[in-house]
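Repro case for the chain-ordering regression, as requested:
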Amino acid sequence: MKIQNFHKASSLADAYERLERSSDAAIIGGGAWMKFSSRTLEEAIDLSGLGLDAIDERDGVVAIGSMTPLRDIETSDVLKRIFNGILPHAAAQIVGVGLRNIATIGGSVVGKYGFSDLLGPLLCMDARLEFFKEGEVSLAEFLERKGRTDDILVSVNIPSKAGCGYFKKVRKTALDFAVLNITITKTDGQTRIALGSRPARAVLAMDAMAVLNGSVDNDETTIEKAAEKAAEAVRFGDNHRASEAYRKHLAYVYVRRGLFMLEEGRT
Amino acid sequence: MKKTNVVNTFNPSIDGKGIMMGRKAFTEDFAPKDALIIKVMRSPHAFAKITHIDVSEAKKLPGVEIVLTHKDFKRNAYTRAGQGYPEPSPHDKFVLDEYVRHVGDEVCAVAAVDEATALKALDAIKVDFEVYDPVLDFEGAKDHKVRVHPEDDIHEMFPIGFDPKRNLAAAYHMEIGDVGKTLDDSDVVVEESFHTTPQAHAMMEPHAVHAEIDYNDRLLMFSSTQTPFHVRRILSQTLEVPIHKIRVIKPRVGGGFGGKQALHGEMLCAAVTLRTGKASKMVYTRKEVFESTYSRHRMRLDFKIGATKDGKITALDVYGLSDTGAYGEHALTVYMVTGSKVLPLYNKVDAVRFHGDIVYTNRMPAGAFRGYGAVQGNFALESIIDMLAEKLGMDPVELREKNMIKEGETSKIFEVMGEGTEGTAMDMESCKLEYCLKRGLELTDWRGKHPKKVEDSKVRSVGMAIAMQGSGIPFIDMGAATIKLNDDGFYNLTIGATEIGQGSDTVLAQIAAEALGCELKHVVVYSSDTDLTPFDTGAYASSTTYVSGNAVYKAASKLRDMMIREAARMLKCDVESIDFDGRTFTDSSGSSVTLSKLSNTLTYNDEQQQLTATHSYVGHKSPPPFMAGFVEVMVDRETGEFDILDYTSVVDVGTTINPKLAQGQIEGGIVQGIGMATYEEYHMSKKGKNITGDFLNYKIPSQKEINRLRTEFADSYEDSGPYGAKSAGEIGIDPPPAALANAIYNATGVRITTLPITPEKILMGIKQKEKDRQ
Amino acid sequence: MKLHATINGRKRVLEIQPGDVLLDTLRDHDFISVRRGCDSTSCGVCTILVEGKPVPSCTYLSARAEGKTITTVEGVQDHAARLAGFFGGEGADQCGFCNPGIALSVYALSNEAPDADEDTIRHYLTGHLCRCTGYHSQVQAVKKYLEGLK
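-- result from build under test --
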């Protein structure tokens, strides 16, 4: 990435105004992946210094400022308390401490990266995104939209419901992107399953969820059926990390394992 | 050579502190601030001819000093291999050529005042390519209709089987006894093909070089190389600069593993500085390190092994195909080591055949890499030994014990196969392989764990392999050392040997200190400067401790004799009556003079003279180190994923001059071997572009992959080595692939014959077996 | 543009370009302990501390360090020398190219988690690739170093 001008925003309004001015202006999140972009930015807009790096719990919502580094998510006591701490658990497995000190949750979300290990847990926890102009929108809806957003992400909001969660990252080495990541949450009797790094971006396994949420009891047969559905109905692909067939198989095994663990109250 | 104080005792490396503190140490740290920055245009095509190249716009850019294309160089075919002379590698490369033979090959180069200008200049160069169909599949390369090297001005230095018309960089054949007949007569024969993939050295310091013209009008070059003397020679021969006009200094090197044995940026950097008269610098990007240097040779090894019913191995038959990529660097010798440092492990065979072809393809070249063919061969041999044991219904350890090489024995292969030439007969005067095996079984509770234990959806299992390597190349590798006595009695040790992080400066200083009876701190080391240090072939072939170490020992002993002679003169007594304990010379009457007094007197007061001794050493044999490696894994039967719970090694490297550093060599090798065995892999697009050319996609082991490493050394003494030492640099990398493949087989019944051993392959194997059962 | 930052305890004003990263800025100003390994945030070699936290300098925009404190190994020489003693003791210093970066992460770790056990040490240092040692000796050295601080 080439950067012609650097602007440290004095406020969100200031940042938004600069962003609107040019199609070649962009918000710099953590900048962790900027080396992999060939884009030339007329202006890089920096949001650090606007207090967007806090994790707050209020009115039944955990709000994570968009500039919160992944390392802070990894070590957050508040986040460790909800859904068995799947978000800190997922964050802790992303590259190393150094990278996690700069990469931000805002960058992970807005980048909509296929390899992201955070989108799955956020989808399963029904995260909502607070944008400067648009206001709140669900993560699921945001991920469906095409192209880059021209709004500014202010925070990622997670309803702090009582619930449990399961997260598994299948990978070659501790520093690698996932071959596949699997997230499951259960709250209010409703189960959500997300599969990410397929290698495409995380999605909810709707058909598998329907099997579980339409049945009275998540017994062995239901779990088996849901796991099969997850492998069958979600689309997987090939890349040098794994084949489509292997990912499909992993989805089946880990969705099944995760569901059993949640049923048995283990995580 | 009795050991006393300094050798085989704990000594931290002499240079670790300054490096941890971030002091100037590595090549780039010494680059002049005003050095021109060299950037190279890399080929986007796997095979193409440059039909037109227009550099006029680039030359006009302010700050661009020089643009170099193939038209600027005389066609002097050379090899970058970085070996002794004449090289056993074909001279098949030009500094720049009209052909580009792999994605990442050099098209042209620019030197400019800064990086931005250099990159801009590259963008301004217009190149037209005639793009050809590349030869990407090495199994179809021999006699392919497309010739990777169509030019006729390339050559071999002596017969190595070089035949570019058939895409052969080299070929080899040897047979001892009658293999066909012996196999026919064997009760049991096992046959299997094994595939290994290229591996990246992935040293942390990218290749770096800078050059300037010094005030004596000579070319002064700093390079992160393993072979400074070869660099000097090859630059001189290829660029036609008198060799006395070149000085090469090797500062601290940030890891090599064979990857810095060859020349990389040196040629272009020298050319830029020689032509502009200005300092220049070239530091490889990580992408260039991955795409434009070289990797380990990809091989297919077709193995046949025969045995009697009671488990005597009768014959080994190996045909191999090795992929040298676009250039034949180390083509023949790597392949020969696949046989010569692997097959003698089972020396009681009646017949053995080893032959193969080393083919050109339009892939990144292959070259020297720790293990140097032996790791590929070991994977095949030690896998097929387990397969044979199963077929014989015999315990694999017992089969090894019965057939493996033992102390005092020899193998005919040593005599027949050298590196590029015939070999050297030798007996195994030190070989503690039996102990290594036995001790490893104890340490790992092998009998209690072999072959597996099922735990729910997981299986815990063990696997093992034995290995050997060499210690330098006999009659070829030469190292020399000079030791100088200074006033107040401290010494300078200057050596051509190349410290690349393996600890050779420390180890060689220890040998000198031991021989001189002084403390380690009183030996000041300076290494690898072609003007100031004596010759050494370089850091490769596991040669430094054994070859250069012997030179140091001999030089130190010679200096010791010289000092005793001077002390005898001073004390007016016979040389024979002098006893020297490292500090004081005492004669039989009890008169004495201290080293400090002696050296000060010789420097300032009486019969003043400089005492200095130089000695060189060339090996007459290459005593192999031996080891046994044991791995314990936990395999998930539902996914094929596995964890390495423990890796235990027992190693015979002769005397460990520095036990901690030797352990570091072994463990570093093991982890590199585990990487090769499990996830290190180059992936290529259909057009031959590397899609794993960075650390995000090419995975090397990190902190978390290996839970437990245990390394023990056998009590061993090699009479021909300095204080009993053999080598430790390479051997550690050899056993992991086979040990792991055997453990996975023991856990799942799936025999992986193609590296790397990935969970996906294991799972697919498990599924296939289930299908077969139905 | 100008960067005002406290580097190794000294206030500095450096001339930078908007797209510069700290790796280049620091090396250009002779902080040569900051070494270049990969340029893609994935090897840990170029690690420095910003506000006491380890970050990859190859990916940290210099402009972003405005007003911040930056530490390189040149700024923690006593710590590095002491740690080197433990690395030497375990045979954990081979080529050493990655060691200044590791020294800084260990420095940060000793502040964040002085009681770190082996697992925590491995977790904290996972971002530092090393091709020489096999890691085992490094972890032992860091463990002993942390124990020595108590």
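Ordering looks correct now. Chain A has three domains: 2-43, 55-159, 164-263.
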